[in-house]
Amino acid sequence: MTDSSLNKETSETSTVDVDLEKQFARIESTKHKTDFVVGKTRSATFFSVKATKGTTPSELSGKYTTLEKAVEAVERFVRNAKETFSVRSDRLHEERQQRKDAESKSKNG
Fold first, then answer.
1. 22: nearest Cα among 47, 52, 43
2. In the chain, where are the structural domains located?
């Protein structure tokens, strides 16, 4: 069973997918190359946030009493975070490629 109130797109920065049965959430961000995963810790009492690549930001480390609070913390972090260097670099590279392609088409045609 999934909760549709938590499964949503939050502005332009992230997508939240929550599975209440498994007590698990995955937050995808356009500002980071990593996804954030919220789940129960080994003690099975508290929830924690993990990054799929690299280390978890210090702002998100710690324990959360509910899945909703952990998801809210990640959403707040993503909303306030700047675009990472690698994401920005990839975006600028893609924009340059599109401009080059447009220029070559206008010269050829």
1. 47
2. 8-82
Q: What is the pLDDT of residues 38-66, one digit of tens each?
A: 998 776 789 999 998 888 889 998 899 99
State residue 85's pLDDT score.
Answer: 79
In this structure, which amino acid lies at residue 105?
K
pLDDT in tens, 13-46: 668 888 888 888 998 888 777 888 999 877 678 9
Phi, psi values for residue 37, rounded to 5°: -115, 130
Q: 40: buried, middle or exposed (CB in 10 Å: 19+, 13-18, 0-12)?
A: middle
Question: Residue 67: exposed, middle, or buried by beta-carbon count in 10 A (0-12, 13-18, 19+)?
Answer: buried
